[in-house]
Design goal:
Blueprint lengths: L8 E2 L6 H12 L4 E5 H7 L9 E5 L5 E14 L5 H6 L7 H12 L2 H7 L11 E12 L12
């Protein structure tokens, strides 16, 4: 699929069940936001994404599935994430507290600790996170542009 050749990958979670579940939520239209740690961008030497940037959504086998476009990128304190963002993550969170508990389990995992080089890594209210809102531009079936961001 040549449309994917020049785009960076859009990675959700780590390869495996979690990534595949999140990818399925994106493809179904249920997931239109995601959250990462600002610290990871610095540790990995990656620039922050910007609205308008495009990336290719990949599954655990790194197969290209869809082209996504970022429509919003914000850096904020973990304590300042609002309900709309949590709900739009597409994992059926009923509250910000539920969203945060789920994300803290991931961020406090050994896998994430290894990725950031700190096995004792933890987050708190003041931890800076990067929230991203996106839409599907083109899926792997060759469908045309589709706006699923609810805007």
């Amino acid at each position: 699929m040549a449309i994917y050749d020049d785009l960076p990958p859009f990675l959700l979670g780590f390869p495996g069940e979690l990534r595949d579940r999140l990818v399925a939520a994106v493809l179904s239209g249920a997931k239109t936001t995601t959250t990462g740690l600002l610290e990871q961008y610095g540790r990995e030497g990656e620039p922050l994404p910007e609205p308008g940037a495009r990336a290719v959504l990949v599954d655990s086998a790194e197969r290209p599935l869809a082209v996504l476009e970022l429509t919003e990128v914000r850096v904020l304190r973990l304590a300042d994430v609002e309900l709309r963002h949590a709900v739009d993550e597409g994992e059926e969170y009923a509250s910000v507290a539920e969203w945060r508990a789920s994300h803290e389990r991931f961020w406090h995992s050994g896998e994430l600790g290894a990725a950031v080089g700190d096995p004792h890594f933890t987050v708190d209210d003041d931890t800076l996170v990067v929230t991203q809102r996106f839409r599907i531009l083109r899926d792997g079936d060759g469908d045309g542009e589709r706006d699923r961001d609810g805007a």
